[in-house]
């Protein structure tokens, strides 16, 4: 059971980091689209 | 510089894997707590990395207040954001460790409470930056960051000054640690520091790009208004 806590702590750490990196990737993709639109205009 | 990023990314991924191996396999099992003590190899390096990022935020805020350099403002924003992410890891992994060891998830102990207050200060800083649109926002945020940074040494030294349930510090706490445990701890800290640097770098590039796009939108609106006036 104690190993479950260890696994949970390590998993939560990476879920938080991957979640944050995903927000950066999404924001970056949105900006790329905006730049494309701006260049069209 | 762009070519350097994937190389550093691969090196950091390798370092993180090696650090994970050190923490889970090489470091000996602690006698009292057992396997759950290995949470320490993620919890402590995350806390140290958050403290470093908050210090960077403090230094960049001072530079912005003195020299008004926009780049310093971006560094301050980025370091606070990534620092909050690492501090969140600390606040979540701590209770996961505390439950099997102390029998409780949380106690209003000085170290735990001051870490939560520190996190709330930097979350307020990010809210201020996100929801305030005035030209004074970077200056107000920098002032808040300078005051917030005063909380960092208080959090670190709280376990020396107050009676607390939190374990004593690994360095300077007077206790001893197995060299393999110390090695695993330092490797994990190095790996998380490199990882934090890369995340900050990506976030910095994103923020600079965002500012360029905002400027282009403003210019476009201005030109549209001029055309309308003619």
Roughly what fraction of the amino acids of chain B lie in strands? under 5%
Radius of gyration of chain B: 21 Å
Secondary structure tally, helices of chain A: 1
Shape of chain B: globular
Structural class of chain B: mainly alpha
User: Rounded to an integer, what's the Rg of chain A over CA atoms?
Assistant: 18 Å
* Low-confidence runs of chain B: none
Following the backbone from N to C, one meets helices and strands of chain B in this order, namely HHHHHHH
Q: What is the mean pLDDT of chain A?
A: 92
Q: Give the topology string of chain A: H per helix, E per strand.
A: H
Q: What proportion of the residues of chain A is helical, as a percent range? A: over 70%
List keywords for this structure.
heterodimer; A: 41 residues; mainly alpha; 1 helix; 0% strand; B: 230 residues; 7 helices; 79% helix; globular
């Amino acid at each position: 059971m104690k190993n479950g806590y260890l696994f949970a702590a390590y998993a939560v750490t990476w879920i938080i980091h991957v979640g944050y990196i995903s927000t950066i990737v999404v924001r970056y993709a949105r900006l790329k689209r905006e730049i494309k639109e701006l260049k069209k205009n | 510089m762009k070519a350097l990023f994937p190389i550093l990314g691969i090196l950091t991924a390798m370092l993180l894997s090696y650090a994970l191996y050190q923490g889970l396999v090489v470091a000996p099992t602690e006698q009292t707590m057992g396997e759950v003590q290995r949470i320490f190899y993620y919890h402590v390096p995350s806390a140290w990395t958050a403290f470093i990022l908050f210090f960077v935020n403090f230094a960049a805020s001072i530079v912005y207040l003195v020299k008004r350099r926009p780049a310093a403002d971006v560094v301050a924003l980025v370091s606070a954001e990534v620092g909050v992410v690492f501090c969140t890891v600390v606040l979540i992994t701590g209770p996961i460790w505390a439950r099997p060891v102390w029998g409780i998830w949380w106690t209003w102990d000085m170290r735990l409470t001051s870490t939560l207050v520190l996190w709330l200060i930097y979350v307020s800083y990010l809210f201020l930056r996100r929801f305030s649109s005035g030209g004074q926002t970077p200056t107000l945020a920098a002032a808040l960051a300078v005051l917030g940074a005063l909380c960092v040494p208080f959090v670190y030294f709280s376990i020396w000054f107050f009676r607390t349930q939190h374990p004593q510090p690994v360095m300077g706490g007077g206790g001893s640690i197995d060299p393999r445990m110390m090695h695993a701890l330092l490797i994990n800290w190095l790996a998380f520091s490199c990882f934090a640097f890369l995340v900050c770098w990506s976030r910095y590039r994103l923020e600079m790009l965002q500012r360029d796009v905002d400027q282009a939108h403003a210019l476009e609106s201005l030109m549209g208004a001029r055309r309308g006036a003619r």
